[in-house]
Amino acid sequence: MTGFYIVLFFLFGLIFGSFYNVVGFRLPKDEEIVFEKSHCPKCKHTLQWYELIPVFSFLLQKGKCRYCHEKISLFYPFIELGTGLLFAVSFYSFGFHYDLILSLILVSLFMVILVSDLNFLIIPDSVLIFASVLILIVKFIFEGIKGGFFALGSGLLLFVIMYIIMLLGNLAFKKESLGGGDVKLMFISGLVLHPLVGIFSIFLASIIALPVSLVLLYTNKDHIMPFGPFIAIAILVLFYMKIDIYQILSLL
Ligand SMILES: [Zn+2]
Question: What residue spans define the domains of the chain?
């Protein structure tokens, strides 16, 4: 039965991933999300339902628009597949536990951030607020008043710490070092992780980002690299691993 649910979550993930493409591409441009029909970005042709099947439409059309033959970015099926896989991993990791809900929220947040931060260097506030509220509701329902307020306090603590790091970074580099979205993302880190594990997510994000930034240093003159996706993946990894504070301390 577990295998059945894993496949089911994978398929749900594909569908949700296709929605996160839409959210991540439209929110930063203040475009309508739900009622506006999907269309080809080049020829503006409205896409039919059979052109919107996650991953499969892309494969069937060999990655091209059926009307103008413009190449469709590999980014779209990548986000769909990634969401499908991570939804499946979430179910495999947590089963029917409330941590499953939290991890699905985190995966969703990560995917939207990936789309919007990589394409527009923006993490939309509305997405962060929506995710925070959902996480807090889950925390208050399943962990009670005490657990809910602990998560809230932990989120605020990490927000303040990251804010101070940003101010120091701005002073040191004489330019904007971290985006406001990155600071707000640490609030979410604190909501789902123990505050000390949450602090570790900053380090983990830097470790993951290091090889990528070295590559960018050679290929991209501007050296502009969104940090949001790295923080989000670090939070997700730590959440999956359920690392507790004693494991972190034993590493130091
Ligand atoms: Zn087209």
Answer: 1-96, 121-252
